Design the sequence.
């Protein structure tokens, strides 16, 4: 991809100043609403029967807006994006305007699609929940770990330089297995691993209602377990200090420590960790039915099947939303687990 131009950088500054989107570096697309896992911390799979998916027409219709706003990267999320039978056609359309395509995946079918992934997807982010027995238990799918591992290793065999990173949600069921997650990441050849706490309070992940206490308690680390979580984090910080220094663990030591503070905040032991986020100004989410959200956790503001994306993001209502949004005080933002803060100077090339 070409480097970031000064004009694009200027437009990104202007977006932050005026709240009108003139540059949109990142777009998250959900090509398919269903998922091939049944994860305990996610309800997406519970709506698999009500299939929704983005079409070639949808993606083609996005192109003018993406070009106008200088989009650099499209993250294919879900659900499981590879369940869309036309997934690689969608990627080919996007690559036609020189957009970087990143795939977030469960990893169950990457081996079967390895050659096309290497051709049409720039990098992969795979979900990893524990060592083999625990990963399979959390995913509620037999052989989920084996399929993920075989897929990663096969792609690395075809192209050792291809970038594959892992993402782990740390919660009540797997925090004791944290060290094993790092070890397994290295064994299968991942380039990097990333850790975040579990969202247990929002309407995201297809929750028709926010989780109540009985369901929360399955995932939320209990107050009595917090000292043990603190011990695990201390162990990770000391045992894997080299992996923090060389970037194999993506987060800083402070952000890993904040996973403890996030869970402790549910019991009033401290405030939720402060997160500097500008996601609604630098990215947007387009769901499998075409619905547009400022970020994954915010309400919909339009649909690409009704209006161009650029018009939706720059409607009077959308601009007013961004202008009034105080991410340090908004209750959804305060409890957010995956904030994004992208500087105008950051290049996605």
Sequence:
């Amino acid at each position: 991809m070409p480097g970031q131009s000064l004009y694009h950088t200027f437009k990104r500054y202007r977006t932050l100043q005026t709240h009108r989107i003139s540059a949109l570096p990142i777009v998250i697309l959900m090509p398919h609403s269903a998922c091939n896992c049944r994860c305990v911390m996610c309800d997406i799979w519970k709506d698999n029967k009500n299939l929704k998916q983005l079409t070639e027409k949808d993606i083609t219709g996005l192109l003018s807006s993406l070009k106008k706003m200088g989009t650099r990267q499209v993250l294919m999320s879900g659900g499981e994006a590879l369940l869309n039978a036309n997934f690689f056609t969608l990627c080919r359309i996007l690559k036609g305007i020189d957009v970087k395509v990143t795939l977030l995946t469960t990893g169950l079918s990457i081996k079967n699609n390895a050659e096309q992934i290497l051709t049409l997807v720039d990098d992969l982010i795979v979900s990893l929940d524990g060592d083999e027995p625990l990963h399979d238990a959390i995913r509620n799918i037999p052989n989920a770990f084996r399929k993920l591992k075989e897929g990663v290793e096969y792609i690395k065999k075809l192209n050792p330089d291809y970038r594959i990173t892992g993402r782990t949600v740390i919660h009540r069921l797997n925090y004791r297995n944290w060290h094993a997650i790092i070890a397994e990441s290295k064994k299968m050849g991942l380039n990097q691993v990333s850790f975040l706490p579990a969202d247990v309070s929002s309407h995201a992940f297809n929750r028709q209602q926010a989780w109540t206490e009985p369901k929360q308690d399955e995932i939320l680390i209990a107050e009595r377990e917090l000292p043990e979580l603190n011990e695990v984090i201390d162990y990770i910080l000391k045992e894997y200090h080299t992996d923090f220094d060389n970037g194999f663990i993506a987060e800083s030591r402070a952000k890993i420590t904040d996973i403890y503070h996030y869970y402790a905040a549910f019991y009033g032991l401290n405030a939720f960790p402060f997160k500097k986020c500008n996601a609604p100004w630098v990215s947007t989410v387009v769901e499998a039915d075409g619905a547009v959200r400022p970020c994954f956790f915010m309400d919909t503001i339009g649909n690409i099947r009704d209006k161009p994306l650029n018009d939706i993001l720059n409607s009077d209502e959308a601009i007013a939303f961004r202008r009034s949004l105080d991410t340090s005080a908004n209750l959804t933002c305060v409890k957010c687990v995956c904030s994004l803060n992208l500087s105008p100077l950051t290049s996605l090339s």
